[in-house]
Model the fold of this input.
Amino acid sequence: MFDFINKKWFYFIFSALIIVPGIISLILYGVKPSIDFTGGTLLELKISNQEPALTIDKIRKTGELQKIEINSIQQSGPDTYLIRLKPINKDQNQKLQEELGKELGKVTEIRFETVGPSIGKETTRNAIKAVIIASVAIILYIAFAFRQVPKPYSSFRFGICAVLALLHDVLVMSGLFSIFGHFLKVEIDTLFITALLTIMGFSVHDTIVVFDRIRENLKRLSGKPFPTIVNESIVQTLIRSISTSLTVLMTLFALLLFGGETIRWFVIALFIGIISGTYSSIFNAAPLLVVWEEWIEKKRVKSS
Amino acid sequence: MKKKRYLLWLITLLTIFSFIIDLPQNFRLSFSLGPMKIDRIISRPEIDWHFGKISIKKDFSPKFGLDLSGGTHLVLEADMKSIAEEDKDKAFDSARDIVERRINLYGLTEPVIQQTKVGSSYRIIVEIPGISDAEKAIELIGKTAKLEFFEETLDSAKEATPTSFTDIWSIPTGLSGKNLKKSQVVFDPKTGTPEVALEFDEEGAKLFEEITKRNVNKTVAIFLDNQLLSAPKVNETISGGKAVIQGSFSMDEAKRLSIALNAGALPVPLTVIQQKNVGATLGMQSIDKSIIASIIGLVVIGFFMVVNYGIMGLVADVALIIYTLMTFAIFKLIPVTLTLAGIAGFILSIGMAVDANILIFERIKEEIRWGTDQLTAIRLGFDRAFPSIRDSNVSSLITCGILYYFGTGIVRGFAITLAIGIIVSLFSAITITRTFLRMVYK
Done:
């Protein structure tokens, strides 16, 4: 039987290799919040038959003339441009498009979104609240679900390890999106928060399957050393864990290829999260449990 | 054994029922079978039943969110600074009413108008599907409501055939919404029928007394935004600034009139604090793409299950198809408004739906490896996999609940579709698969 537990430190280091750069990026660059959180306007325009660089330049100049503060202009498709600006109202939008029409020919509005700063603050508050409440609810639920772990093992330690695995996934996702934000200008929006919470649910879902097997094996194989039991449980659930992730990843991949532009980064966030969630339940949560038990064992030996 | 047969019937019925709901409105069935040629249009049945006074009507068209159908999403904030605390709810209802009136004025299709109170701010959320004259309606929404009182046109002018209400009541009285303090529904102490009470300020009371004196036995019309609200007959001179409009109102009618009057009496400025316009073409493309993605996802998973689990996998695939039919039927029944994120949630739940099957089948394989015979292994597989299926799905449902509670719009759509998907998947993966497996391995 393959020994997972033996190589636990290797897995922890692998996780660290992903998480640490993410944390550094989070500290140095933070994340790029979208207008959902900051307030602002997003305007997508279709402007045909123009040199992109020239068009972008003209949009910027026209904006300046109108005293409209433009944060960024991006080409989002062959003839489409995504403009991010400080909140403007409908009249300003109309005026801007009229002026652009004079400069650049036919201008068609594809998308116009504007979020007032007060709503942005509120969304931010709600997102933070949701993440905190979800974490607390999940911790409570795990403590409840594992209340029947046989002595001397404690449901509390099971719970904490599941939450650490969860934290791992949150850090992987936020860290990577901080890096994406800095280098690819990817923004954190409400959909990202949705993905994050979904992954929190999924990660625990995965961890519970592994832990459930450990609990069962503790009864069935009592007498065997703890690391062996954990290892056996991982092996027994391994195919299931990978199969499930694969099926979810396959559907996500279909969405990624065919699902359209607006949810692309949402799907990527879920994709990364599912991989991380599966990895953390197999290679982090269960091995952590072993590390903890061994540490307690050592303390007990020392004190006696 | 009897119980199992009953389950099979239940599943068959549910599947047929779901399938009928899932059918598109009309679709053409055209094929030839040897000499037989069939070409007919099948229509999905609609519920339009009448039992005496009760009528049930439901059409099963899928509801698409604005990101798919295209349209305008607006959040308006009502400025309540000048409204007394006890009148705030009244003013809020009136603000909503005025928004609705103005949108309907432009004949925009099926607007969704909701009120929300967030902390101390009062908001109205408006969703207008399609991109017709939304811009004009929005322009109008921002304006303050205009409530005016008019007297009947003089008899001489009346001879000409009146073409509109404004011809019948064309004499301005100078009395307007700013003179009206508030309006509310009251009840006639004798008969108990609902009436609409008006309360004027000092200036309004004086004006109203003069108007009623001039118009005894004639009508005085009340217009909101140039639309006739009501034209009560004056019975006597009314002084003191308090009046009631009597009529054979139902409770609902009285309430509606009072709300409309308050729109003039308690005007609240509305400002757009959030707006989203989505072009319809972008939406249509997204629907097509999502359907393709769902089908591909299903097919790939179907293959995966058969390759891994053989006949059991095939059974799971049948269950998965039933699952898809049922989930979509539920979306139409509730109805759940489908957004892009919602469809993503649904597709994600397809992936999660087979998870329970995988857990069970892996367990069955394991039991067989340990030397259990196949039938017992199947039974044990279901029994032993159940606790972890239950425990693990609860955690996903918890996050769905939190997402629904804190989220708005798209996030809620995602949470609902994912949650429905998870619940139905438990039924399909456990009950349906088990029933079918029992048939296969009899």
